[in-house]
Design a protein that fits this description.
Elements (H helix, E strand, L loop, with lengths): L2 H20 L3 H24 L2 E13 L14 E13 L11 H15 L2 E2 L11 H12 L6 E9 L2 E5 L2
Parallel strand pairs: 1-3
Antiparallel strand pairs: 1-2, 2-4, 4-5
Helix pairs in contact: 1-2
Bound molecules: zinc ion (ZN).
C-alpha cells in the first residue's frame, strides 16, 4: 500500500470512529481511536525511513591542471582523467511505473552536461578554473538540478579508487 493510500484508509477509520462516538458507542470509538494512533505512529516511522536512491553514470575524458596546488606538485602539470560521474536521484514513493525516475529522463538532462565536459581542457570552462573533483561535482550538480528535481547526489570518480560526492 502506498503512503497516500494508507493515509486515506486511516482517514476512513477515523470517520467511522467519530460516527460511533456520535451514536453514543464511546467504548468502541475509543478503542478505534487508540488503534488509529498506533497506526499513525507506525505510518510516520515507515514514511520517514522509506527511500529509494537510483543512479546512472556518465563518462567523460578530460584534461586539467590544478593551479591552486603548490609549485612542483604533480597536479600542477597538464594531465587527463577518464572521469565517471554517478548521478543519484531519490524518491520516497515509486511512480506508476514502479520506478523513481525514468533513466531516459535522467539521460536527457545529463547528456548536454557530458558533452560540455568530454574531450575538453576543463580549466577553460566557466566555473571550472580550479577543476578538482569537488568543484566538478558541484558544477555538475548546479547544472543538473534545475532539470532534475529528484537529484540527490553527484559522485565523481577521478580515478578507479578516488573521488568525491556532492549534494546540497
Ligand atoms: Zn587530475
Amino acid at each position: 500500500m502506498k503512503p497516500a493510500e494508507l493515509k486515506t484508509a486511516l482517514g476512513n477509520v477515523e470517520r467511522e470512529a467519530n460516527r460511533l462516538l456520535r451514536r453514543g458507542e464511546s467504548g468502541r470509538a475509543f478503542g478505534i481511536h487508540h488503534a488509529l494512533n498506533l497506526l499513525a505512529d507506525e505510518f510516520e516511522r515507515h514514511a520517514m525511513r522509506t527511500r529509494w536512491e537510483t543512479y546512472t553514470e556518465m563518462r567523460f575524458e578530460s584534461a586539467h591542471d590544478l593551479p591552486a596546488f603548490p609549485d612542483g606538485h604533480k597536479c600542477r602539470r597538464l594531465h587527463g582523467h577518464s572521469y565517471r560521474a554517478r548521478i543519484f536521484v531519490e524518491a520516497t514513493e515509486l511512480d506508476g511505473q514502479f520506478i523513481t525516475t525514468d533513466y531516459a529522463e535522467i539521460a536527457a538532462v545529463v547528456e548536454p552536461i557530458r558533452l560540455a565536459l568530454d574531450h575538453r581542457y576543463l580549466n577553460d570552462i566557466d566555473g571550472l578554473e580550479n577543476p578538482t573533483s569537488e568543484v566538478i561535482a558541484q558544477w555538475i550538480w548546479r547544472r543538473l538540478k534545475p532539470g532534475l528535481a529528484t537529484l540527490s547526489k553527484v559522485r565523481i570518480f577521478e580515478t578507479c579508487d578516488s573521488g568525491c560526492t556532492y549534494s546540497e
